Amino acid sequence: MERKIQFGINDGKAFFAHEMSINFSPMQFILDFKSITPRVDPRNKEGEVISLEHNVVLVDPYHAKNIHELLGKVIEDYEKKFGQIKKPKQIEAHEKNMKKELEKKEPKTTAPSYLG
């Protein structure tokens, strides 16, 4: 007798991550994907609202290592086909400007070194 099985597939919603953090415990890796979106509402007198959404993926260490290997292979294949992935010039310029701004705000004194 042939047994038929039907699968229900929930595709979930698409999610664009602007940032990601990775942490771990002895039993799992925690991949925290973040989307940060400014929301402007002219009725809001308090100013701009930032919307932060998280999608967290938990995997065991074995699967985390498989993800690492697969991502490395896919990036290698991508770069063979399209060229080396480089940081966009806009991000480099922004980081340079942010560094200058921080240098202006930081006091010019140095803290003593306690590490020898």
Task: Give your account of this protein's structure.
The chain is α+β, with helices and mostly antiparallel strands. The protein has one domain. 34% of the residues lie in helices and 24% in strands. It is built from two helices and three strands, in the order E-E-E-H-H. It has helices spanning 61-82, 89-105; strands spanning 19-24, 29-39, 49-59. The chain has a three-stranded antiparallel sheet. A hairpin with a 4-residue loop joins strand 1 (19-24) and strand 2. The longest helix is centred in the middle third of the chain and has 22 residues, at 61-82. The protein is extended, with a radius of gyration of 22 Å. The N and C termini lie far apart (78 Å). The relative contact order is 0.10. The mean pLDDT is 87.
Give the gist of this structure.
This protein is an alpha+beta fold and 116 residues long. It contains 2 helices and 3 strands, in the order βββαα.
Any chance you could write out the topology, listing elements then pairs?
Layout: E1 19-24, E2 29-39, E3 49-59, H1 61-82, H2 89-105
Antiparallel strand pairs: 1-2, 2-3
Low-confidence sequence ranges: none
Helix-strand topology string: EEEHH
Biggest sheet character: 3 strands, antiparallel
Helix content: 25-40%
Q: Tally the helices.
A: 2
> Roughly how many Å is the radius of gyration?
22 Å
Q: Structural class of the secondary elements?
A: alpha+beta
State the strand order across the main sheet: 1-2-3
How far apart the termini lie comes to: 78 Å
